[in-house]
Request: fold
Amino acid sequence: MTIKKKEIEKRMQLFETVCRDEGIKLTHQRIEIFREVAQTEDHPNAEQVFQRIRDRIPTVSIDTVYRTLWLLKDLGLIVTLGSSRERTRFDANLSNHHHYVCDHCGYTRDFVSDDLDNITLPDLVGSFGEIDATHVEVRGLCRQCVAKGR
Ligand SMILES: [Zn+2]
Ligand SMILES: [Zn+2]
Reply:
């Protein structure tokens, strides 16, 4: 499954606009790092982003990838997911959505659901603080892992 070209272009345009507005220099490395997250549904972690852009940008370091991903997060261009136990994964899908995550290999996919967007939360949750969004994470063993017998 791939993300439509039009959606990737939209994400790249938002990236350029936000960087310009915030006075962030559009370096080749930053563009390639953001593009890598913007064009995949994988929700890669920093290590995976690093491995994928290495061929294209031999001078890039894992440190730069980490710093850039967290900068992009601070700019609101990507969101993070994963509990602290796992390595943080990055997601350029900013629209309301939910995740399926494989417990074994980390395979992650987006899905949308109007029902889940409008889920009724227990009153207790409101006492913890303000609620901006509800994100459902479905966990299990993905098809590939099931086929491999784990
Ligand atoms: Zn799996
Ligand atoms: Zn996602």
User: Anything to note?
Assistant: The chain has seven helices and five strands.
